[in-house]
Each structure stands twice: as C-alpha cells, then as structure tokens.
Amino acid sequence: MKKTYISLIILAQLILSCSNSNDNSVQQVFPMFKFTHNWDGQNITNVDFNTIQFTNENGDELSIERLRYVISDITFTSESNQVLVINNFNLVDVTNSQNIVYEFASQVPVGTYQVSFTFGLDDEDNAENYVYLNSQSFNVPDMLGGGYHYMQLDGKFINSSMQEQGYNYHAIRAVDNPGANPTFPQDTFFNVNLGTITITEGTEVEVKMNIAEWFKNPHSWDLNVLNQMLMPNSATQIIISENGESVFSLGEVTP
C-alpha cells in the first residue's frame, strides 16, 4: 500500500509522544481482531452454510454458500489525538475459515484508543496490485474499473415462484459507464468505528458482523428484484454501502 511510509511516520510520532509524556519507554504489543458472524444474534459459522434457514427483512428465505470480505486501514486514535494506521488488509473468508483471526503485523503502543477500520479498500489502495487477492480471484473486471471486490456474499433463496434461485450479493466500488472509460459516482467503501478500546498485551478484539443487516437497514432488500448482476449497477452498490453502515459492531475485548 502506498501509505505505508506515512503510517510509519505516524507510528514514530505516537511512540515519541508517549515516551516524552511518561519519560519511559512504551510497551509495544501485537493486538488481534477476531471476526464473528451472526444473523440477528444467531451465531453463524460455515457449518451453517448451504441450507436455506435464514429469513431477511423482506420475508425472503435464503441460504449462505460463500461469504468473504476485505477490511483495511485499521486506525488507532489515542486520547491525545495521535493517529496510528495499520496499513494492511485482511480478507476474511468465512466459507473456508481463513483469516477469521487477524494478527497484526505491526505493533501498537499499550494505551486506550478509538479504533476503526475501512470496509473494503479506499480508492488509493484499490488501485494497487495485490498478489494475494489476485490468487483468491477477488478481482473486479477492468470494464467495471478494476481493483477488487469488497465482499462476496452468495447463496440461494426461494423466489416468488417457490423455486430455489441463486443470488450474488457482491460489493465493489460503484461504477457507471462500464467499458473502456468507466466513471465512479460515489465511493462505497466505508469507515467502521468500533469505539474506545484499551490495548494491552494479548488483547483480542471481537468484530461482529450481523449478516441480516445487509438486507434491511436502511433499505429493505427484495431478492426477487435484486439477486444477480449487481456489480454494474451503481445505485445498487450505493444501497449496499448504506446498508453496510449498521453491519459491524464491537464484541468482547479480551483480556
């Protein structure tokens, strides 16, 4: 990511600020994120996939067959407004139980912070070339602006004809004019603020995703109308982004 150098400067400033104020060296630790998933409070793992057992706000019965999404730019803002950005990304693959626990590659000084992250990749990061995301077939076609998906949520639902039908709820950067010269009407990555967290040795932060929220708040989602070919539809991508604002919340923080 291009912003790595800036982040290292910010980290150095944060450490120096803490050291000067306390006149002691500040302990550095490696916190972790643990991602958990639920449907309005009902815990979900990949064991619960491939069975139609969930009902969305619109009354559509559905299953989940694949769920993976990327988070990036985890940000720690100290009580003195010093900012540290962990300039990396994590592809959470619930289907294959990969990267459910994310151990930071960079250390964080012990302290109390406002903690946030980006869902997806901001425009600068999305323009980068990531070998790992390429290997996971997470790319967006060039005619849709290139870059990477933010999320792939796939499954089946019972349609209005009482038949099983597939859906592909995919989040990307909103794009108009697909083709050689696409345009981008509005950013659809968004910031998630987890609130105030105290970071110490061995801290594990639970990040909860309520999957049901993707289908209901503030827009009730009708799978009979919006089920596939969502990526070229910029208005739909904006709705997905707006629904995502209520998806994540802070769970348990240990120790």
From TrEMBL:
Keywords: Signal. Residues 33-222 form the Copper-binding protein MbnP-like domain. Coiled coil: none annotated. It comes from the Bacteria. Residues 1-23 form the signal peptide. This is Copper-binding protein MbnP-like domain-containing protein. It comes from Microcosmobacter mediterraneus.
